[in-house]
Amino acid sequence: MQWLYTGDITSNEHPFSLLLNARKFAQDLEGSDYFLAAGKTIIETFSAPQATISCQQIVALYNAPQGSRARQRKFLVDLCAARPSLVKLTSELPVQFLLDLTQKFLSTRPIQGLDLHEALSEHLPLSEEEQEISDD
Which of 50-70 are b and which e, b meaning 16 or more Cβ less than 10 Å from the residue's Cβ? Predict the structure, then answer.
């Protein structure tokens, strides 16, 4: 609702699951402006040093039916691989999440100071304006 009135999602108080659902909703509706706003908020929120994703949110995502959440799971794994400090590794995490994250770490070489825009470019395309800046 905030985006409808302001054209921006400004609060960094959103839980990961809510932002992920906003992103999926934008994809389903093919709302590119809203999709970019959701992506921008995700990157801003999870670029903060104190940002975390709760174990409960990961469990909920991994307990959902496989087909409906495959893209969201991949997004979560890519985000956590780019920012390992987002999640505290505990025995409560789903085994499949730990396997997916380990596989991601083994398939990519960690890059120090990797920008989340770059790490998530497959999931969150840049706006035309941001694309021009990154090309410079």
Answer: eeebebebbeebbeeeeeebe
